[in-house]
TrEMBL record, chain A:
<protein>
    <submittedName>
        <fullName>ATP synthase subunit delta', mitochondrial-like</fullName>
    </submittedName>
</protein>
<dbReference type="Pfam" id="PF02823">
    <property type="entry name" value="ATP-synt_DE_N"/>
</dbReference>
<feature type="region of interest" description="Disordered">
    <location>
        <begin position="1"/>
        <end position="26"/>
    </location>
</feature>
<feature type="domain" description="ATP synthase F1 complex delta/epsilon subunit N-terminal">
    <location>
        <begin position="73"/>
        <end position="145"/>
    </location>
</feature>
<dbReference type="InterPro" id="IPR036771">
    <property type="entry name" value="ATPsynth_dsu/esu_N"/>
</dbReference>
<keyword id="KW-0813">Transport</keyword>
<feature type="compositionally biased region" description="Polar residues">
    <location>
        <begin position="8"/>
        <end position="17"/>
    </location>
</feature>
<keyword id="KW-0809">Transit peptide</keyword>
<dbReference type="GO" id="GO:1902600">
    <property type="term" value="P:proton transmembrane transport"/>
</dbReference>
TrEMBL record, chain B:
<keyword id="KW-0066">ATP synthesis</keyword>
<dbReference type="GO" id="GO:0045259">
    <property type="term" value="C:proton-transporting ATP synthase complex"/>
</dbReference>
<keyword id="KW-0472">Membrane</keyword>
<comment type="function">
    <text>Mitochondrial membrane ATP synthase (F(1)F(0) ATP synthase or Complex V) produces ATP from ADP in the presence of a proton gradient across the membrane which is generated by electron transport complexes of the respiratory chain. F-type ATPases consist of two structural domains, F(1) - containing the extramembraneous catalytic core, and F(0) - containing the membrane proton channel, linked together by a central stalk and a peripheral stalk. During catalysis, ATP synthesis in the catalytic domain of F(1) is coupled via a rotary mechanism of the central stalk subunits to proton translocation.</text>
</comment>
<keyword id="KW-0999">Mitochondrion inner membrane</keyword>
<keyword id="KW-0375">Hydrogen ion transport</keyword>
<keyword id="KW-0813">Transport</keyword>
<dbReference type="GO" id="GO:0042776">
    <property type="term" value="P:proton motive force-driven mitochondrial ATP synthesis"/>
</dbReference>
<dbReference type="InterPro" id="IPR006721">
    <property type="entry name" value="ATP_synth_F1_esu_mt"/>
</dbReference>
Length: 203, 69
């Protein structure tokens, strides 16, 4: 009787706390996966004590692909200091991946992509909201939840065109006068970011 | 499998992703319009002090700060 007490307490506690949270991509029925080989050898050695939980018992498996494609994509856009979008249901997002602009629709295959500085556009019905991201990652999970993380994400109307042009010219200058690898890399990064900002303002 | 994958130019130059990402973010912050720019730059301020320990005792700390005392 006492042996099973801790297991059901754990399940009940995690299930209620999961219901109160916002929907995360890893929300699943509260199943704890047991490491069967370890549990069996423990029971052989020590049949009277409950086996301790191994780290794999606390890990939540990846969200499974649902049988029907959901109609909306749930997007979370988070920054270190703010969550700009949190569990917003949208029709599509276009993320600026390093391999090009990637459109994510509900039912998209699970993907992890690194982002380059560029525009994230969130499409909801006829509204399109654009944010300029400074670089980050986009995780699309099999249950149509997209987590986009970046350090800075600003609406395009908060960018100042003059500062962008000036920055672009400055960094092009720095690239010409750069000597060490690190200086060249920094100048190149400056040029990339400012050209992306420029394209965002004019495009 | 050491240098098999093509590396981004900044990693080839010895920069880590964290440095790259923070640099991109700081460049974007510097291109913002006025009220947003000052709020954003306040996010970049750091204040910390570092002290090396020698023989179990801390030496004089070096203070790195952007907030005026």
């Amino acid at each position: 009787m006492l042996r099973h007490g801790s297991r059901s307490l754990f399940n009940r506690a995690s299930a209620t706390s999961m219901r109160r949270r916002r929907q995360f991509s890893t929300d699943l029925p509260a199943e704890t996966v047991e490491d069967t080989k370890f549990v069996e050898s423990w029971k052989k050695m020590n049949p009277n004590m409950d086996p301790p939980k191994t780290p794999s018992a606390y890990m939540k498996p990846r969200p499974p692909t649902p049988a029907n494609i959901p109609s909306k994509l749930t997007v979370n856009l988070v920054l270190p200091y703010d969550s700009v979008l949190s569990s917003k249901e949208v029709d599509m997002v276009i993320v600026p991946a390093t391999t090009g602009q990637m459109g994510v629709l509900p039912g998209h295959v699970a993907t992890i992509s690194e982002l380059k500085p560029g525009i994230l556009s969130v499409h909801e019905g006829n509204d399109v909201t654009k944010y300029f991201l400074s670089s980050g990652f986009a995780f699309v999970h099999a249950n149509s939840v997209a987590d986009i993380i970046a350090i800075e994400a600003t609406p395009v109307d908060r960018l100042d065109p003059n500062l962008v042009q000036k920055g672009l010219a400055d960094f092009q200058q720095k690239l010409n006068t750069a000597s060490t690898d690190v200086e060249k890399a920094e100048a190149q990064i400056g040029i990339d970011v400012h050209s992306a900002l420029n394209a965002a303002l004019t495009g | 499998m050491s240098s098999s994958a093509a590396q981004p130019f900044w990693r080839a130059a010895g920069m880590t992703y964290v440095t790259y990402s923070n640099l991109c973010a700081s460049l974007v912050r510097q291109c913002l319009k006025e009220p947003y720019r000052s709020e954003a730059l306040s996010r970049e301020k750091v204040h910390f002090n570092v002290s090396k320990w020698v023989d179990g005792k801390p030496e004089k700390p070096t203070i790195r700060t952007d907030t005026p005392e």
